[in-house]
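> run fold HORMA domain-containing protein
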Amino acid sequence: MTSGKVCVRNKEKTSEWPGLFLNDLKTKKESLIFVKRMIAVAVSSITYLRGIFPEYAYRSRYLADMCIKVLHENGNTPGASKVVKWLMGSFDALEKQYLQVISIGVYTDPENPNCIIEAYQFNFRYTEKGPEMDILRNKNVEMQVTLENTKQASVLLIRKLFLLMQNLDALPNKVYLTMKLYYYDDITPADYQPPGFKEGVYDHLWFEGMPVHFKVGEVHTSYHALRVQVSVEQSQVEKLQRRDYLKESKPVSVDEEKKASSKKIDTKRDFPSDDESAQFKKPARPLQKRKAATKTLVTKKRRV
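> ok
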């Protein structure tokens, strides 16, 4: 199994949005279900396209022209089942609106889990006012976010994630996964931990080499906003650029990153933007959250 494998869509299958997501996002409950499914789709796509779990750990779903592999909830693969349990635990924090960041790291040394070779970060924002606050601002122009906006942004995010994952080099034969949760400390009870997690300490993550950060995309609903970022080693990016998979882009400043949550997604761009910075970025507002302890998982890559 390699990182470049592709799930080919069966032309006889219909590419329906309701096959993956709800067809209405007017209520807070519907929005929450949508965000959960987006996370499940993204994490499943990452683990599938990076060759972390075997083919039988997934089931196929279809969206637009894409065949999407989603992890089975009750599969017979221990590693995949553990990741599903992690996600279910994180959803408890998401439901309570405590969750700010899900951080998934890939590393090779079981004695040094904070030294990672890839990272996937999911950032969350919430609003209680629903559609009244459901506005994106782009170049001083305000526009109401519709279901169609959410659909387009979701498909674009998944497509960008696919393109990036399919064009990275294969992972080593033996890798480990870790998941850490970061909370909004101003509202999260001091003794709260979601199922499957325990209290952790705020420590640093660092890369084996120079990391490059990709802002894959951002999706808004009336009650939630989800932003996805991928970090890989710089040599991966150099290979992508040589193959003309990436367009040149300027490094993203801290101020620009803070403003990113209010920007409308540019549907004309085909690939994620890259932010070449010297250090691995911590989640925003590190002093206002704490994290759940690291959970580790040993996995072996299978080769065809």
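The first strand starts at residue 58 and ends at 63.
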